[in-house]
Amino acid sequence: MGLAVCVGMLAELLEDDPESAEGFEEELAEVNRVLAAAGLPPHTEPRGPLELDSRASIDSFPYSFIHYLRRAYAHRVLSPDWVATPLADDVDPTADPKIQALLDGCESHLLCHSDAEGFYVPIDFDEVLFDEESGSGEDEEAGGLPGGMLGSSQRLLDELVFVAPALGIRLENGKLSDKEAERIDDLVEEDDGLYREYVSWLLLYESARLSIEHKTAIVFC
């Protein structure tokens, strides 16, 4: 099992699985309820086919991988000159006190999000939105917003750009070139070094880019 990160999900479901599309639209209604409660405009998910040219060769990764990226982000925030080195396999990245230090503020859209389900929407807002009506994850009948927290694709992208130098990722005015995307994808395939950080960074970066470009939600599932 692992975390799948999707964009253009409604359009795909309407074409391939209309029954599941109905349930997904109910989840989108929860997204808009949370947005409305925060005084923000609703998200309108595209229903027609989308040409999503992701440069990430994968669309999912083990649940643990995102925590390695979150750890890198926390270190970069608290120590701007910090440079990532591979974490030993027997070290739990979630135990890093720097992650907890930032989680206490609930400001980071990368950190303050479920690692198993939930949404980012292409609407620019500063603070992560929390839904008090969401279930704990154990009570499937509790309803509410999946994951309990709603992020902004714009803010997620900004945070990914911010952490990139600590991972040795070269951006040009905040943009990822095709050549650099290919280089990172090649590093992912080596399954060594910072590959866990690269896998999660590249997939999330491409998802955020496409989310903003095509006005479609990022879905963790």
Provide a concise account of the structure shown.
This protein has 221 residues and is of the alpha+beta class. The protein contains seven helices and six strands; from the N terminus they run E-H-H-E-H-H-E-E-E-H-H-H-E. The chain has helices at 9-16, 18-37, 65-78, 97-103, 153-163, 178-190, 195-214; strands at 3-7, 60-61, 118-121, 129-130, 149-152, 218-220.
Features:
single chain, alpha+beta, six-stranded mixed β-sheet, 7 helices
Characterization of this structure:
With 221 residues, the protein is of the alpha+beta class. It has one domain (3-220). 42% of the residues lie in helices and 9% in strands. The chain has helices at 9-16, 18-37, 65-78, 97-103, 153-163, 178-190, 195-214; strands at 3-7, 60-61, 118-121, 129-130, 149-152, 218-220. It has a six-stranded mixed beta sheet with strand order 2-1-6-3-5-4, sandwiched between helices. It is globular, with a radius of gyration of 17 Å.
